[in-house]
Structure formats: C-alpha cells, structure tokens
Design a protein that fits this description.
about 140 residues, alpha+beta, about 15% strand
Length: about 140
C-alpha cells in the first residue's frame, strides 16, 4: 500500500481489498486498544485524503503480509503513518470488526470471511424462506 498525502482513504481500502478480497478496512479519528471495538461515530470519510486525516507525515510503501497478525497490521499503520484503522471480516452477511480475533493473521481472517461471509448468509436466508413455506 502506497502511503502519500494525495491518496484517499478509499485508495488504501482498494489496495487492501485487492490483497484480501474478503476483508475490508475502515479508518477512524482515534485509535483503539487491543481487543477493543471502535465506535461507528469515529469512522472517517473514505473520500478524505491521507494528508488531511493522519497524525504524522511519513510517506512510504506498506507491504501487506498475509502472515501478519491483524493487530500488528493495525499498529503499523498507526505507528508508521498516523492512521487509525480497523480490519473487518464478513460473517453471515454482516461486516464485523475483528477486535475479538486481532491475534489471527490476515490470511486467517480472509479465509474465515470467505467461508462465513455471504455464502452462508444466503444459505441461511434461503433456509428461512423454506421454513416460512413449510410452517
């Protein structure tokens, strides 16, 4: 991920999702502690440029490593670039903050989201439809 003031948060979200298609990241006004959820009210507009929201003025390339723990990825963005981020994965059709599984690698998060995301949501929704018909 290229970190530069003229890029938008949406650009970083797209870079991240290319590497991890079943995950997404959101940026926040303030940081969160390990194992802690970040309030929705803190979400930053994805159209914002990096230069207008970050707390330090470093530039660079952050290599995305699938074997990196989720918490380490989030810490690096904060420590190196002053960006507060939270990783999300999908489970049963809903995006969940990964705060409870921050010790999982990005690959583990992505794999779980691939298995438990929309596919299982669609199955459970179809099952609910069948239950209505046969009840």
């Amino acid at each position: 991920m290229k970190i530069a003031n003229n890029r938008t948060l949406k650009d970083l979200q797209n870079d991240f999702q290319k590497a991890f298609p079943y995950l997404k990241i959101e940026f926040y006004k303030s940081s969160h502690h390990y194992g802690e959820e970040t309030p929705k009210e803190q979400v930053l507009d994805p159209a914002s440029t990096i230069g207008t929201v970050r707390t330090m003025d470093n530039y660079g390339i952050l290599n995305l490593d699938e074997n990196q723990q989720t918490s380490e990825f989030e810490k690096l963005l904060s420590k190196l670039y002053g960006l507060n981020v939270q990783v999300f994965r999908k489970s049963y059709g809903k995006w969940l903050q990964t705060w409870a599984t921050d010790n999982w690698t990005l690959k583990e998060q992505n794999d779980r989201s691939a298995k438990m995301g929309d596919k299982n949501f669609e199955k459970s929704a179809n099952q609910k439809d069948k239950d209505k018909i046969f009840s």
